[in-house]
Amino acid sequence: MFKDLFGKPKYVTVRTRTKQEKEDISPDSRLWTKCNSCNQIIFNKKLVENLLVCPECNYHFRISAKDRLAITIDEDSFQEFGQEIFSTDPLEFPDYKEKLATARARTGLDEAIIIGEAAINGYQVVIGVMDFNFMGGSMGSVVGEKVTLAIERSIETRKPLILITTAGGARMQEGMIALMQMAKTSAAVKRLDDAGILYISIMTDPTSGGVTASFASLADIIIAEKGALIAFAGPRVIQQTINTSLPEGFQRAEFLLEHGMVDMVLSRHEIKDTLTRILKIHQVGVSNYD
Amino acid sequence: MTNNILDFEKPLLELSAKIKELQSFMDEKGLDLSEELMKLKERAAKLQREIYASLNTMQIIQIARHPNRPTARDYINYIFDEFIELHGDRKFSDDKALIGGIGLIDNQPFTFLGHQKGKTTKENLSRNFGMAHPEGYRKALRLMKDAEKFKRPILSLINTPGAYPGIGAEERGQAEAIAKNLMEMSALKVPVIVVVTGEGGSGGALGIGLGDRIMMLEYSYYSVSTPEACAAILWKDVEKAAEAAEALKITAKALKGLGIIDRIIKEPVGGAHQNPEEATMLLKKAVLEEYASLSKLSPDELINQRYMKYRNLGVYNNDWNDVLEGEILKEEVE
Ligand SMILES: [Zn+2]
User: Searching chain B, which residue's CA lies closest to the CA of residue A180?
Assistant: First the structure.
């Protein structure tokens, strides 16, 4: 089922490559990956079979939007909409156009989110998935517009909305236009809420800044993927501000659960099934009070 | 007022000292040097015009961050005939960095919200430098809901470096608090008038900043990130803050041009800190003018206009080729 998307050896080698990791990668990297957490060498085939979760230590590797879709929705059910919307460079910000082109080439996506209609074990939904590889999943005009279009499609079709986030925050290169996408998307969520439509937010590693402080935190049900960093201000900024060390597990999914900020923490393997059950409960419930 | 003089203010202050000196010399000796005096005054006025016409963004930020710049409290004192501060979010605590209350401006009830900075170090510590915790945003929301109940318009004054990045703030849901405010403010049934009076620091500013009219004082700034942080993140070089400041387009003038704000409120010559009373009166006038036009709208019209204002915010294109007119990029794509 993941053959098309997940099977690409290209992806596993492309994902979350930090400078350190780049050095770690040997010519054999098409065959195996070193776990970021336990440092075990894992064969890519095995890693892919395990949804890019380390079989040794359960570390969740970051995954692309396309792969996320593949493991979340029913095969061949994705009907993308909102294509043909592209970031421009309204501030003429240094290197922005070049960065957009690089991101586009690297991810095969037009922007840091793809939206569409899909089915999850037969339940019809509107879904949006972000990709951290596209400029750190930052929210500029296009991400803001696509999130809003997804919300509007949900209202129009009365299909539940699922947004899966991974984001570094507002896109600096679009300045205040990017910041205002927080207001735009939150206002749209208000309309969705008023329309009485289910909205599930799934926060994955990492979700921070303006995305956390807008639509991602406004869902009826918030799911955090195991181990995900979920924050308003990033740990480095906080460390610099307060000048003391941060508590163990600070800003991780489990920490947010403990502090009442998310409904549940799920491992990657549990997400589709849990979504299905939530959708089932809501579908049964709706007609009772109409 | 001898403290806190900005570099570009120095030549002006020197000149005005000279003027004073000449004046007292005249008075002392009983001489008539009014022609010289006039010339000096003209020179000072010209110099002032020149300096303030060519301020760069970093200089504007300096004015916006000036310790003597009027704070929320100053605006309250000058423009409200009657004011009662209300405290607490009813959940955890009272945030002194974001204050609120109810009052009368020219006999019109208003609910007031504003970040509160201090003028002295001691005061700033107690106000957390105007950086609010989730409790501040939740207090603001409580007061806004209250405003809606009593059909009072809301005046929100922004002046913060940003929402506080700390452990407690994260534990108690800084992101959720801001997000919730944005969601609720988009549908308030009463007019919301927002003015950035000093620093408009990112999400911490926006958290009380979604409204029907967004105005900025002439020498305030409003930015997705501080220029320092932007330079550090994008170019790994804090020294490039000035460059980032220009690139981010954060001045009132630039943001009016981009359609992010609706109106620029003039400041007294030399900036609001030179004449707080005049500054507050200029703000009051603008607020009442905007309120006069908003008060003509029904709640539905108000909410729809506000929604569309934000719905339409964004700049994008429908053709990738229009966006990228470079060959450089095609190479990268190969
Ligand atoms: Zn591992």
Answer: B313
